[in-house]
Amino acid sequence: MNKLLKIFNQKVPSSDVSFINKKYKSLRYSPSFKVTGNVEDDKGLTIRRSVVFTGRQLIRASSNLSQGKLLYKLAAFTSNDIGSKINIIEFGTCVGISGMYLLAGMNKETGGKLTTFEGISELAEISKNNFDEFLQNKKLFKSKYDIKLGRFKDTVVNHITKLNEPIHLAFVDGDHSEKTTLKLHNLLKKVLHTDGIIIHDDISDSEEMERAWEKIKMEEGANKIAVLKLGGMPSRGIVFMSGHGQKEVQTYDLDNFFERILRRLFRKFKI
Ligand SMILES: C[S@@+](CC[C@H](N)C(=O)[O-])C[C@H]1O[C@@H](n2cnc3c(N)ncnc32)[C@H](O)[C@@H]1O
Question: Which of 104, 137, 160, 244 fits 3 for a cystine, CB–CB 3.0-4.6 Å?
Answer without folding.
Answer: 244
